[in-house]
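User: My instructor asked us to take a sequence, write out its structure as tokens, and then describe one feature of it. I'm not sure where to start. Here is the sequence I was given:
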Amino acid sequence: MNGPSHYVKGEELAERAEVLIEQGDLHGLAPVWVALAQVQATLAEAAAVALGTSHVEALGWADVARTRYSDLDPEPGIRH
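Assistant: Let's start with the prediction itself. The structure tokens for your sequence are:
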């Protein structure tokens, strides 16, 4: 899995947890799904920070962030 894949998986797991919480499952499986979602989010963050972002990876991040690649800053770095 790459960073964007971990991000998407984390969102899916968080949605499962949210459904269970809305159904009142605060002590059953909901906390497990929350923990698993948090692990996926942590892995996504680690991938983004540790590996940097190649062009292909940037396209994947743009997709999961639901933005267009053209919206991304063409020259990453400090903005003035």
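For the description part of your assignment, you could build on this observation: The chain is about 65% helix and 0% strand. Try explaining in your own words what that tells you about the chain.
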